[in-house]
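Shift notes (night). Ran Fimbrial assembly protein while the centrifuge was going.
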Amino acid sequence: MRNCRFWSVFSDFVRFFAPAALFFVSLSSLAVVNLEVTRVVFNGDDRTLSLTLANSDLQPTLVQVWTDNGDPLLAPDKVITPMVAIPPVFSMAPGEMRSIKLLLTSRQALSSNKESLLWLNIFQIPPQTQQDRQAPQKVLLPMRIRLKVFIRPQGINAPIESDGHKLSFTLQQDEPPKLIVHNPTPWHMTLSDITCGHYTAETSMVPPQSSQPIMLNGSKGTCKTLQYNLINDSGNRWQYSTNL
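Came back to this:
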């Protein structure tokens, strides 16, 4: 019963303070609870994975963990995915390290020939200090970290560095200019540090077996050699260069 009550509280926070919560996604370095990984990968035979969380703060904190299908504004009690976090709601003492489990309950709705994607949410509410209580107009904003969870079917192993060469690119110098990335592989490919001539682009993820435009920034000019990195399972970068 206690967990249900906490679940309702967290759902209300996500529903009414979602913009603030999303703001903290890009500021995960400020979060009190941190992880040892930047992404989670379920391979073909995996049913459960463990993650270690660490409360780096000097205060206790309340944490909720859930997965979603990509909509960050959807409250956790409205989300249905084939993955559950155990435990879903818990408190952490100052300096505590805690292990949680992600359980993949079914692969039936997932693709059998390419990687599927879920998002892991770690939502934290900081404690209210005595100073906070004495400031009646102060609002305690929750902090939220989102991580990609890649789920691979049997027969689809981890990509290797040479798989990055399977991507192809088309430059469209319209207004605004775009780089069309064609990904024929069964993996989500995350490109970073994209440069071509005077053009640059933000980090972007291209779904498997699909094409996606990436908006380019910078002044129009010659773009003959494209340089980019791919982020691998370990969170490290593979470097590539190709002629357009």
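Residues 11 and 75 are 5 Å apart (CA to CA). The chain is about 10% helix and 40% strand.
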